[in-house]
Amino acid sequence: MPLDTLDRTPPPFFKQGPSALSRLVFFSALALFLMVADARFHIVQPLRAAIATVLYPAQWLALQPVQMVRQLTGYMTDLKTARATEEAARRKLAEQSERAGQVEQLLLENTRLRELLELRQRVQAPGMAAQVLYDATDPYSRRVVIDKRQLQGVQPGSPVLDESGVLGQATRVYPSVSEITPLIDRGHALPVMNARTRTRRGAYGDPAPHGGAMELRYMSVNEDVKEDDLLVTSGVDGVYAPGLPVARVTTVDRRSDTSFARIRCQPLARLQGVTHVMVLAPLTPQVAEGPTGAATADSGAPTAASAPAQASAPASAAASAAASAPAAPRRRAATGGRP
After folding, report:
1. Which residue among 75, 84, 100, 260 has the highest number of C-beta atoms inside a 10 angstrom radius?
2. Annotated domain spans of the chain
3. Contact at 8 Å (CB) between 245 and 165?
4. Residue 271 near residue 167 (C-beta atoms within 8 A)
5. How far is C-alpha 320 from the chain's CA centre?
6. Which residues on neighbouring strands pair with residue 335, listed in sequence order?
7. 305 and 156 in contact (C-beta within 8 Å)?
8. Buried b / exposed e across 122-145, counting CB within 10 Å, b at 16+?
9. How do residues 32-50 score in pLDDT, each as one tens digit?
């Protein structure tokens, strides 16, 4: 084939139009014109809105994976925070419950101590507050041991009260602790007076089988005694101040086959579960006799395992109770025993 017949023109792809510099100047001027026109007349705003509307579904679909990841991360973070907050709230609730229990206990103790202070203000005899350490090992005597001792001024025969009334007497005093004999002890005798009739009699402890009570003995069946009568200390024994609440009459049994009535009383003081008591000084100095005096001479303190269990009546209370009893049983009551 001859060479003259070949087409030497370049293909359309390789055809060159205007020069590059000409195109740069043209498009630069066009861009500047469009920017000025858009800033002045907002001619591109409808086109931009139309393009944004068309591209919004694609943009929303593209952002869904990112939003899901963010929501999942936020959910896990919130779940962890909620669990930590719940644990902290539970711990705080447990602490508040414990504090609430302590507050109730403190309020109860505070109420009892206030009642003791009010009782202390009504009593002229000097006294001191004491805390019950433990109960003695003898279940029949129900004696308790307090933290006040001989070096702090506790004397044998000192009256002991709680917020409700007379609890008993200090029968054994040691250098470190003291032992309290309650009113219901078998050998305990206390001169009392009926607050309604002003009649003086002797009340004796009766621990069993009636669950811990007291008994008024040597009272005639015709005596003016009613149930719910209040018994208070008479003060004739020189130990207890007069007017201290002791017990209330619960039953009056008048039988035709005997000349004496069986009268049982319930002590007002709490005989079990008492924690704080008031120890008063006797109105007159007491001299311990018999087993009680021997016990006070002992220098060793009682322990929960070796607390003495022998019941002994204070000599002064027994003598005063005997003074208020009839002549027939008076000699027996003076010894502190049961007739």
Report:
1. 260
2. 127-333
3. yes
4. yes
5. 41
6. none
7. no
8. ebeeebeebebeebbeeeebbbbb
9. 988 888 888 888 788 888 8
Q: Three-state DSSP class for 248?
A: strand
Give the pair of three-digit tokens for residue 77. Answer: 């973070």
189 alpha-carbon distance from chain centroid:
36
Residue 217 in tokens:
């003995």
Judge whether 154 and 178 are in contact, CB under 8 Å: yes
The pTM of this model reads 0.51
Q: How far apart are CA 38 and CA 35, in angstroms?
A: 5
| Amino acid, single-letter form, for residue 222 | N
Phi (first) and psi of residue 275, to 5 degrees: -115, -35
Whole-angstrom distance, CA of residue 108 vs CA of residue 133: 18
CA 178/CA 147 separation, integer angstroms: 7
DSSP letter for 132, please.
E
pLDDT tens, residue by residue, 142-162: 788 998 888 888 888 889 988
> Which residue type sits at 208?
A
Q: Distance between CA atoms of 269 and 164, rounded to whole angstroms?
A: 5
Superfamily of domain 127-333: Rod shape-determining protein MreC, domain 1 (2.40.10.340)
DSSP 260: B
- Please give the structure tokens belonging to residue 239: 């130990």
Q: How many CB atoms lie within 10 A of CB 218?
A: 22
What is the average pLDDT across 320-332? 38
Which DSSP string do the residues of 267-328 spell out, in sequence order? ESS-SSS--EEEEEPPSS-----HHHHHHHH--SPP-TTT--------HHHHHHHHHHS-ST
Question: 3-class DSSP state for residue 154?
Answer: coil
